[in-house]
Amino acid sequence: MATPEALSKKPLHVLEKIRENLExxxxxxxxxxxxxxxxxxxxxxxxxxxxxxxxTLLGMPDHLRKTAMSVCRMxxxxxxxxxxxxxxxxxxxSAYLNQLVIMGYLKKERxxxxxxxxxxRENQGGP
Amino acid sequence: MMGxxxxxxxxxxxxxxxxxxxxxxxxxxxxxxxxCLFDLDFRAPSLSMLLRVDKAEHYLNDYLNNTSDIxxxxxxxxxxxxxKGKFFVALANPGTEAIRDMSAKDRKWEMRALAxxxxxxxxxxxxxxxxxxxxxTSPGLQYSSIxxxxxxxxxxxxxxxxxxxxxxxxxxxxxxxxxxxxxxxxVLNKVLEVSSKTSKEDIRTKLKDIYQVPLLGIVPCFCxxxxxxxxxxxxxxxxxxxxxxxxxxxxxxxxGLP
Lengths: 127, 258
Hints:
A: mainly alpha; 5 helices; B: 13 helices; 17% strand
């Protein structure tokens, strides 16, 4: 017979997986809501690994520029940390950040419960 | 209090950015502030020549290319400003090949350069105790200048009453600084006839009207400045000159900003 610990471990694992998937779904929904709100004009064509340079920042719609600038300054941050800087709601920042990921300007990485957003600067070194 | 990054920019060339950058940095250092002046005009470097530094082994170019540490780039010129505060400079490489190399960089490189500029805060403002980093930039809208503006806490715009400059500056304030939500102050340079108090007030009102941003200072057209050929550090070498007085007022205002 299984011990009580083993019994409780399995459902916990399943629940964790469900929560993770729900979070991913939530991110996607937030992006879709944002896309609808602002029309299709800021979606452009997603460019793989588009450089987030200052000229690109200048050409962005205001609401996305604010978010992108904060990520540039912080290097790597969660939606909550960005919201803290921009004084906007976390859910709003999460949507903008995910939109910037779709557009190819940011990368996203999950570490446990938290999702981090950052600017990919591959071969940071050489000219 | 945490130190600040000040970018000195303008729409047109020849408005006095470099003159202002050198002398404001010196005025701040004379107040006991620790200042580092950066030559970010990679297309037309001038600080090494104006400040007669020929011993630089590493340049800002190398820092941005990630081939040198920032501390190797800094040159100590504190003895030029009376040793009250530190006065360091970071130079742009004046060699023709370096200029050519810098103007051929792509967007990816410029993106990394922005990150390198943003990354100066911790080692210089936090760890090395600098109070001000002053970025002297290239005029107009180009990568190196916009990178500098984005990295800065305060942008000083050098402008003159030249008509094309006024128009371009106004547009730049709306379409560049506003978009990046930058705190901006205008310095009006080379002004003729500011002798009377009323004419000064007139200029102030006029400028507020045109630019809608605070005015840091008005600098009259001085023949002595032209005669000095850009190499004079006024607060140190000419403490009683009217330009020094204006610089001191501007330095006080900057130091008093929140």
